[in-house]
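Crash report, auto-generated. Payload:
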Amino acid sequence: MAIGVKIMKRPERDVSYVRATLKGMALTFKKMFEPKVTMQYPEEKSAPEAERGAWTLSPRWRGTHRMLTDEQGRSKCVACGLCPQICPANCIKLVPGEDEDGNRYPLIYEIDEFRCVFCGYCQEVCPEEAIHVGVHYENAEYSRDRFVYDLERLSAQTHPVSSLWDPTDPKGE
Amino acid sequence: MSPEIKGLLVVSALKLVIVFTITLVGVALLTLMERKVSAWMQYRHGPNRVGFAGLLQPAADGLKNIIKEETFPAEANRVLFMLAPTIAFMPALILGSVIHWAAPLPVKFDFSLPILGRFHYDALMPMAVADLPVGFLFVLAVSSMGVFGIALAGWSSNSKYSLLGGLRASAQMISYEVAMGLALVPVLMLSGNVALGDIIKAQQQGLWYILPLFIAFFVFLLSGFAETNRLPFDMPEAESELIAGYHTEYSAMKFSMFFIAEYANMVTVAAMVTTLFFGGWDIPFTHWDETPGVAQSLVTGLVMFLKVFWWLFFFMWIRWTLPRFRYDQLMALGWKVLMPIALAYIMVVGVAIYLIENVAGVTSPRVMMGVLCLLNLGLGYLVFIVLDRGALIGGPRSRKPAGHDLPRAA
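Recovered output after restart:
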């Protein structure tokens, strides 16, 4: 044969089909009474690892963004422009402003979560540790324009932020 | 009309309403049960959101199916396309009417209505809508009507998948009808009657026919799976190769009707297996149920329900255990294995009954069936141990499996 076809040698002559069927049926019957692995999602979102079927999000999960704020409740962003620069999906809109003391701050800071590819470069590049991707997955909205997150909304998010991969500590220890 | 005929009509109409209502509600609940059983066998919960533990799920499904859009394929034959689900649906429902669901109930009434006149009924009422003297012949005849619905559905959809599904369904159902009919001949020979009520009576006097006619039971059960198009014989649907076979193009309530038909057929086959081989509504080891009465009818009805329920569960159990057959294997099993077995079995049982009755001179049905039961142990060994080693499903012995002697790829 020109192309390599793997031919499985199946048992042909010395197999009892009735016995195999009965064995299979015994198996499925036994399985009926074993604990279920389904997670009842909206009620139960994550469970201790020890339980079967439970799962938790990875600390390096990259979900929708969050802007961190300082003690006065102002956003940490200094409108340096690095995140729109590095963003491969071009989803960050930043218009910088400057107050009377010469501090730069974002006049407009918008992230289009539909365009975002959740690469996490914005968090990695941010010198002020202001913008973060978050450990979060429940993003449903009723209309499309609700997916452009403005500065106020980004700052109001409370979910934990992602701890990105660190080359000096590749296993995250 | 005489008062007796009017009385019979009233009784029959009542039984009709009750049986059809129970069948349709039961079918709705069966869909839920199917999903639950499948879920449990796969470590899942199954539908548990609608109502308590998902009990209202069939209602939600039904509502959805009624308000969904009816689609028609552009080139479909409209009339047949509309008619096909009905044709598939009717035999499935009609068959429920000949099954004896409980012990006969003594009924006596005599009343008069203003315009309609006098109604009179005084008899031992069989708990079947129609206690037909032709018994299971009627079941065989009507159940083969179901294939028209499926074949027409496949043809009128004007779709390749549907057509193939319809063709497969007709070939399969016709093939297995042969084995099914032949498997019932030993039942006829042993009971001496085709009427279902008399078969149940014969089993009460002797043994349940599962014991003296085990091979016939086995063939009947297998053919029953094929007749209802259930896995492992669900060739006509075979979603992985034919999308959904004959009902690919159907939507909304028309699809639902095929669905109901399948489950109603399941109920019928389960009830037939129970009636023919498991004593119908008979309660084993007691003669209490043989004297007619209200309590007896209720309890035997419950027993019948439990037996049918067990077989329905068995159907689902098999479905979620076995993979689908290959089509040629299916046909080989029907024609080359089941039909010869059924034919040979008729011969063996016929000769055995003749010898036991006329040569040995045994008259007690219990002794005769006991001897037949012993005979079945031997035959069972032959069929399930000797034939089973590859010959039952593996196809003809002489043929080498394709590519058996080809060099293996590295």
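Post-recovery validation: Chain B has a mean pLDDT of 82.
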